[in-house]
């Protein structure tokens, strides 16, 4: 695959490039914020979509339960050493939607829900928008890597009578891929205090050398029965706009509660082309993904080397997973407003400000490296306007 090829996304109504002015950004800003990729999806997916489009009818659709289950089962067995069952699967239009349903299914207004900031900002939004309380057990940045404060984790659960924990693994934006031992320790604490776990594992297919993604439900039956596993082909195959996620809920009681919340929304059949794309991705997309991962890891290494050579004052939090790089600007001594002004109006770059991920993200920026290297190189060179601040 030629991942160096640049595809012009402007004028396609894509959020990444075409929403700048609507979001009060300069029209010519170079975007590295939202977590989608600047690569066309796998040819096998395009072929499946073309075939369905040529058929010409896009009525109400549901995936064949046996056929779709078989491709999902093979994918998770092969890639993640986890065996799923067909009745566990619930399909939703997205993981954020699923997290909102989880909040509504397993808590009531006024209840407390635990997150670990800095973390993907819709976590706090779906909690607050559903009139629940956000409880934060912040991650600790130590020696360039985030750690869990397990004492604080349990203390916050007890003090706030927490009902639900939203886990992000691989972690966005911190890049951690939590070890089996870390997952078990969190799981044991939650079990001992009757806290349900919803695991957002959308980045599970992007894990880098010397790290292994462990599906939370694969830890054992006691963890499986207390967990909602949220997955999607959208990050893996760049299909976010086709709106398909696969949610796995082994516990039948938890599953019924989740389905009931979906029913209340009035949502039923999924996007027809999303179903087509998802099945093709899991059936035939592995070779494309394997090539893509090599390219993305090289982009991460390129970014790290560039910053070390040209902007060593910017801390590089080396990701163990995801194609999102977490950069530490705190040594520059800039306020949030000063840094954003320089990035937007001098460098011409649109990144995700760390403050979006909670107060523990202040002073950081999230950079999406899933693009052709020429575009990444341009962005990093633009970032060098910060040199005059540090000299």
Cα radius of gyration in angstroms: 21 Å
What's the CATH architecture name of the largest domain? 3-Layer(aba) Sandwich
Structural class of the helix and strand makeup? alpha/beta
Proportion of residues in β-strands? 5-15%
Gross morphology is globular
In angstroms, what separates the terminal alpha carbons? 41 Å
What is the ordering of alpha helices and beta strands?
Answer: HEHHEHEHEEEHEHEHEHEHHHEEHEEEHH
Number of domains: 2
Q: The CATH topology of the largest domain, please?
A: Aspartate Aminotransferase, domain 2
Low-pLDDT runs? none
Give the strand order of the largest sheet, numbering strands 1, 2, ... along the chain. 2-10-9-8-7-3-4
Main sheet characteristics: 7 strands, mixed
Total helices: the number is 15
Give the CATH H-level superfamily of the largest domain. Type I PLP-dependent aspartate aminotransferase-like (Major domain)
β-strand number: 15
Tell me the helix content: 40-55%
CATH class of the largest domain: Alpha Beta
Average pLDDT number: 97
Task: Please tell me about this protein's structure.
This protein has 15 helices and 15 strands. It is of the alpha/beta class. It has two domains: 15-42 and 287-390, Aspartate Aminotransferase, domain 1; 57-285, 3-Layer(aba) Sandwich (Aspartate Aminotransferase, domain 2). Strands 2-10-9-8-7-3-4 form a seven-stranded mixed sheet, sandwiched between helices. Strands 11-12-15-14 form a four-stranded antiparallel sheet, with helices on one face. A two-stranded parallel ribbon has the order 1-13. Strand 5 and strand 6 form a beta hairpin. Helix 4 (95-106) packs parallel to helix 5 (122-128) and helix 6 packs parallel to helix 7 (180-192). It is globular and about 60 Å long. The two termini are 41 Å apart.
């Amino acid at each position: 695959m030629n991942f160096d090829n640049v595809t012009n996304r402007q004028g396609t109504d894509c959020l990444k490039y075409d929403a700048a002015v609507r979001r009060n950004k300069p029209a010519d800003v170079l975007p590295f914020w939202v977590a989608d990729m600047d690569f066309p999806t796998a040819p096998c997916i395009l072929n499946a979509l073309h075939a369905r489009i040529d058929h010409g009818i896009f009525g109400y659709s549901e995936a064949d339960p046996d056929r779709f289950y078989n491709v999902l089962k093979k994918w998770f067995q092969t890639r993640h050493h986890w065996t799923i069952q067909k009745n566990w699967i619930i399909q939703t239009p997205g993981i954020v939607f699923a997290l909102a349903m989880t909040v509504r299914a397993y808590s009531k207004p006024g209840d407390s829900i635990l997150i670990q900031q800095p973390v993907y900002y819709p976590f706090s939004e779906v909690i607050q928008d559903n009139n629940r309380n956000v409880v934060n057990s912040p991650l600790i940045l130590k020696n360039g890597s985030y750690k869990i404060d397990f004492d604080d984790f349990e203390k916050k659960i007890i003090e706030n009578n927490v009902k639900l924990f939203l886990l992000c693994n691989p972690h966005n934006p911190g890049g951690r891929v939590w070890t089996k031992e870390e997952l078990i320790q969190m799981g044991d604490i939650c079990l001992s205090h009757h806290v349900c776990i919803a695991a957002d594992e959308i980045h599970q297919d992007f894990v880098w050398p010397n790290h292994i993604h462990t599906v939370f439900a694969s830890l054992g039956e006691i963890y499986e029965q207390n967990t909602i596993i949220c997955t999607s082909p959208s990050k893996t195959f760049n299909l976010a706009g086709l709106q398909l996620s696969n949610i796995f809920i082994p516990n039948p009681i938890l599953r019924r509660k989740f389905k009931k919340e979906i029913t209340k929304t009035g949502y039923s059949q999924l996007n027809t082309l999303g179903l087509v794309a998802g099945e093709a991705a899991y059936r035939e997309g592995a070779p494309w993904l394997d090539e893509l991962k090599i390219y993305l890891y090289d982009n991460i290494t390129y970014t790290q080397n560039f910053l070390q050579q040209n902007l060593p004052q910017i801390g590089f939090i080396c990701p163990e997973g995801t194609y999102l790089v977490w950069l530490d600007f705190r040594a520059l001594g800039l306020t949030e407003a000063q840094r954003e002004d320089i990035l937007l109006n001098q460098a011409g770059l649109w990144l995700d400000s760390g403050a979006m991920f909670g107060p523990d993200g202040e002073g950081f920026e999230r950079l999406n490296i899933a693009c052709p290297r020429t575009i990444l190189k341009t962005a990093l060179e633009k970032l060098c306007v910060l040199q005059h601040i540090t000299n």
